[in-house]
Amino acid sequence: MHSIKLVQKIDKTNYWFRTKQKEKLTKEVHFFLYKDEEGNEDICVEETNFDKGQWFTKDEAIKRIGFPAQRKILHKAFKIIENS
Predict the structure, then answer these.
(1) Bridge-partner residues for 29, per DSSP?
(2) Its pTM surpasses 0.90
(3) What is the per-residue pLDDT across 23-56, written as a single tens digit (0 to 9) for each?
(4) Beta strands 4-18; 24-36: pairing state
(5) Helix, strand, or coil here: 3?
(6) What is the spatial distance between Cα 34 and Cα 9, in angstroms, rounded to a whole number?
(7) Contact between 16 and 73 (Cβ < 8 Å)
(8) What is the pLDDT of residue 40?
(9) Greater model confidence, 70 or 37
(10) Which residues pair with 17 in a beta bridge?
């Protein structure tokens, strides 16, 4: 078991999408910044609560993130990390 600590909630985004049955749904995504207090680099993403998850370096994350609203949130998180 890993010891992670919530640093702070960063922000949230909303978007809509259509299901395979053509139903329109809205999804709200909340972004949080956590810190691993033990310095582990092998924390697993719990598949049952997430669509998918991967770990990236700062540069990789900036290159890979596709949506402007999420890119803004990512930069916000990096500022928090740099100022702590």
Answers:
(1) 13
(2) no
(3) 999 999 888 888 877 766 666 666 666 666 677 8
(4) antiparallel
(5) coil
(6) 9
(7) no
(8) 66
(9) 70
(10) 25
